[in-house]
Automatic annotation (TrEMBL):
Record GO terms (molecular function): polysaccharide transmembrane transporter activity
Protein name: Polysaccharide export protein N-terminal domain-containing protein
Membrane-traversing stretches: 243-263
Residue ranges of domain Polysaccharide export protein N-terminal in the record: 46-134
Gene3D superfamilies documented for this protein: Outer membrane lipoprotein wza domain like, wza like domain
Stored Pfam families: Poly_export
Length: 267
């Protein structure tokens, strides 16, 4: 009788702890959520990005007479083409924001861009050029962009590693999708976003199974973020992620227990 009770208890334990719940696999699974309020929350979070230390900027200065602005452009890598630049060429021809928040543009010299939006930097460069070097007739056109949004994804994802996306804005779902998405044993309820600040790194948490994730200031990725997906307890237990896998594990364990009991009785 004790043996049957022990086996029943063992089976119950495995069934309760081994399978990954559907709620743990569903993104933004809250019921009764107001879609209009969610859309408003996302729009409120879409604030212009402000440049930080170590960002790599791509700056293009154009004019009706391109020869006039050539001296303000960095010397591009030999492997670069006019149509597109590789990540390597952008590293050499782009402008890295220093620890003091400065970039250095040929002829123009140092400019502080820390905490400025890309639009503000464009206007500042254009203003300086018109004040010191050109007249309004030069028809200047300045474009400033992030030279790729670079971040790291590690933990329970399809592919770990450093990712560079050539977009102005990337949310955490897009970031995870670029790395093969979270695996079935990844913890979607507590994804860590490790963000760089002037005073150092800080760890933030976001629950991707809740629509409240849209309100999170960490829903949108920033350059140099590191995203870490922790494993669920099912992985450490090694009991499987689906019902079939769990039943297979239970049968194996029960067979082992039965064999041990039979052998011990025969001794």
């Amino acid at each position: 009788m004790k043996l049957k009770a022990s086996i029943a208890g063992l089976v119950t334990f495995f069934l309760l702890t081994s399978c990954v719940s559907n709620k743990d696999l569903t993104y933004f699974g809250d019921k009764g959520s107001d879609d209009e309020l969610i859309a408003q929350s996302i729009k409120l979070n879409e604030k212009p990005y402000r440049v930080q230390v170590s960002d790599l900027l791509s700056i293009s200065i154009k004019s009706s007479d391109q020869k006039l602005v050539a001296m303000f452009q960095p010397v591009a890598n030999d492997n670069a083409t006019n149509a597109s630049q590789s990540e390597q060429s952008l590293y050499y021809s782009g402008f890295t924001v220093s620890n003091h928040g400065n970039i250095e543009i040929p002829i123009l010299g140092k400019m502080n861009v820390l905490a400025f939006t890309l639009k503000e930097i464009e206007e500042s460069i254009k203003k300086k050029l018109l004040e010191d070097y050109f007249k309004i007739e030069a028809d200047l056109f300045v474009v400033v962009k992030l030279a790729g949004l670079r971040f790291t994804v590690t933990g329970e994802v399809g592919r770990t590693g450093i990712v560079v996306l050539y977009q102005d804005r990337v949310n955490i779902i897009e970031a995870l999708a670029s790395s093969g998405d979270i695996t079935t044993v990844g913890n979607r309820r507590d994804v860590l976003v490790i963000r760089q600040y002037p005073q150092g790194q800080k760890i933030h948490h976001i629950d991707l199974t809740s629509v409240d994730a849209f309100n999170s200031p960490y829903y949108y990725i920033k350059p140099n973020d590191m995203i870490y997906v922790k494993p669920l307890s099912q992985k450490s237990l090694g009991t499987g992620t689906t019902l079939i896998q769990s039943i297979t594990t239970i049968v194996t364990v029960l067979s082992l227990v039965t064999s041990v009991i039979v052998l011990s009785r025969n001794l």
